[in-house]
Amino acid sequence: MTIAEKPGTTTPTINVSNQSGADLAVVSAYSSDDANPQQVYNQDLSLLKTSTGASTIASNTPADVMLVGASGQVIFDLLYSRPANLYPVLNKSAMSLSSKPLALVVTAQQAATMTNAFTFIQTISAYPSSSLAQGYTAAAQSAASGTSNQDIDSAMSTFFASTKQFKDLDIITVTTAQTYLTAFAFGWAQSKASYTYYLYSPGTASSGSSSASPNTLGTLKMVKKSNPPVPADPTDHSGAYTLTYTDSNNKVTPLFYSNGQFVSSLTEDVPALCFKGLFTVKSQFSGDTNDTEVLPILHGTINGASVLGLNFQLPANDDSNEWYALFHPKNFYQFLQSAAFIVGVLMAAEWVGSKVYALGKYIKDKWNGEVPKTQEQQLKDFTDRLEANQKAFFDQMAERFGQQNPVNVPDPAALGPSIETLRAQQVSSLSEIQRERLNDSIDTQLGQIEDLAEISDTPALNDAATKLAKARDDLADANTPDEIQKALQDATDAVNEAHGTIAETMQAESARINEDLRQQLEESQTAVEDSQRLNEETETEKQGVEDGEFDEHLEPIDL
């Protein structure tokens, strides 16, 4: 029985003045279990109507919203959202038994703050080992030990105040934005009518080669259904999208969106298909630190095989292509392992954030913001139950990826060391990309020297070939981070020196070089120059990762 159905009662209302700059829908989020591992948009949702029966509140218009809830419900967690996709503007609770008339103004500044929360989430996803991600998780862990809302707010506000662009955020806005992305598929299509992810796995290099084109394993498509409801249905996690996986043989499998994952089954512990969205920055693929555009990508499994989903088709793999080195099989496997680690770290960050949110809400609702000394055991019992529920939930979500390249969600207490491990892993991955680029350049230059030696076998060419061969052997033998870094630097010097020697020989023997060979040599020179430039960019990015940096001028995507 709802409040409105109780005999002799009047449905409570809240007067909402919509000054947010666009229409609003009001969504009520409810759970009968305070220790629910899922918060905000991941709870039971329902659309509330105004006293006139309207489902939306027009911009610059006041309206009385009817607080209709579960039997006995007096606290309403209200999510003021954009009607078409339920994108959050404000998360604010209201108590229906208040002695004062309930009223609220939803402002454009609050809408801007919520959008900034999405930028924050994209930033820590793109830079999961950064000082920003580390600081956030450390603050959340500190806040989780608080016994008052003041303790929690102080820990989180100190962190956000220390940032340059996220001073207006708090745990409520961040958790609201995070749960929106896991509750609905809208964000992974950027609310567009149609969106496609192209799925790839590492190729198999032929004998004697380290390179191979990645395998194309089909597409994940999101197509908006015709005439979707407005406001959107809060119980439809697909967001009125038809979700499908089409394999390379054009076989189509329907998908479901569940707890932030695209899956082929809602009942199997390990579905045949499981993909999770995350955000990265384009520079991590291109090697160009000027590429600050955020890219949504998918990490997942197809029948146990790890795959990467991109919102664009990969160009042809050749030595002159900026994407080439990343998709060498060895590098691609390493990237997928790193992506699995990142998914686990980000799920743990979501875990600790939602824990702090749930703790703060519990303290506020039960004790009006501060736990009495006599009730601290009750708070501990609640926290223990919440943590157990969260661990079971996040372990279940991780298990969906299977065991071939498992996703492990670290306990929040181990997040600091896990981020340090991730940082070292990312540095290692970038070094491997540099190593592959240098090996490609060395092979190219040895081929050039072989061609030129047929025309003029000079001591300078022989010396260059000897140094290149030694650099290639040193690259192959390097194992520790220090050894790898030294081998990279020595190989870079050898390639640069050989590049100059080859250019000088081409000029000195220009009269004896035919046009076809000249063109081939010039193209190879350009390819080596491009590869060296990309390696310099990668070195800059690697230093940034080691120092915990993140790009403060990141170009976030609109969700």
Number of helices: 11
Give the strand line-up of the largest sheet: 11-10-9-8-16-15-14-13-12
- Cα distance spanning the termini: 37 Å
Unreliable runs: 1-8
Order of helices and strands: EEEEEEEHHHHEEEEEEEHEEHHHHHH
* Helix content bin: 40-55%
Q: Would you report the number of β strands? A: 16
Query: Nearest-angstrom radius of gyration?
Result: 28 Å
Number of domains: 4
Average predicted confidence as pLDDT: 90
| Molecular shape | elongated
* Major beta-sheet overview: 9 strands, antiparallel
Strand content: 15-25%
What would you say this structure looks like, in words?
The protein has 559 residues and is α+β, with helices and mostly antiparallel strands. It has helices at residues 108-126, 131-143, 149-161, 171-183, 283-286, 329-367, 376-399, 415-453, 459-477, 481-508, 515-546, and strands at residues 13-19, 25-30, 44-48, 61-66, 75-81, 88-95, 102-107, 194-201, 215-224, 241-246, 252-254, 256-258, 261-263, 273-281, 294-302, 305-310. It has 4 domains: 3-111, Immunoglobulin-like; 120-183 and 344-397, no CATH class; 186-341, no CATH class; 419-546, no CATH class. Strand 15 and strand 16 (305-310) form a beta hairpin. It starts with 12 loop residues before the first strand and ends in a 13-residue tail after the last helix. Mean pLDDT is 90; it is low at 1-8.
